[in-house]
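Task 17 of the worksheet. Students: predict the tertiary structure of the chain below and write it out as structure tokens. Keep your answer in the requested format; marks are given for formatting as well as content.
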Amino acid sequence: MDIRQSPSYARFMSLEGWTADKSEGTYSYIKKLPLLGHFIKIQRPATITPKLIKTLEGKYHPFQILLEPSLNTDYSLLLTDHGFHKMKSPYLPSKTLTLDLTQSEEKLYSNLKKDCRYALRKTKDSLLTTPSSLPKIYEFRKAWKRSVPFTRYVPSRKNLENLKNSFKKTSLFLTTPDFTAGAIFLKAGPTAYYWQAFTDKEARKTLIQYQIVWQGILWAKKEGAKTFDFEGIYDNRFPNKSWIGFTYFKKGFGGIEIIYPQSLSKTYFKNLLYKK
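Model answer:
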């Protein structure tokens, strides 16, 4: 089960202003936009059927449905008989990297690349902290915003608050004591996710980001996760050069590459022109 099909994520999306509709065991997320009407996104469903699409169409009369398939989703009928088309770019990462956490800690460590092991040795005595209270999380966010270019997305205070309240004990906010680097890890079912992260220029020189991720992996294993998902690496089908650097970083931890099918979309032009 992908995190976006979990009850915790559905709670988060509801707090963010989306309607979380669960039909036929699949969560769809709906938002009503001014003038346009309802936009629906279905992300990484275990299964997808024309029946579900028809149910959503009848209930919300959307102007667009976005579908981001999981690995085993059979959506051929949606392409051939139901008006969907392949998108030029996805909303979610189309390629990712996963670790098998059923291995021992020793085995996980032995699979690390040379540069990664060096970074962990160098930072083994570094202190890390978990800002669990909301004031500390707000401080975490301020430091995050200071550490990245203004063009880079940083979640709002409310977004981080909603995330923490939705995942409660299945989330880990991990940072350096001076908030120069940090990361958020989430767990849903048997999978943990390297959700978001930041490192400022000075902290990057210390290689502390490797230690933060390693501790997140160990936390996930301790919490009973079977898989650790790095939540996105570079995909040459949708080239984005800004992803190359952190892809190299993530691959230092080993793992298996996962490539998702192309995203699909259906736009209902009649709904835009003849709104009821």
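Marker's comment: The chain is about 35% helix and 25% strand. The longest strand covers residues 191-199.
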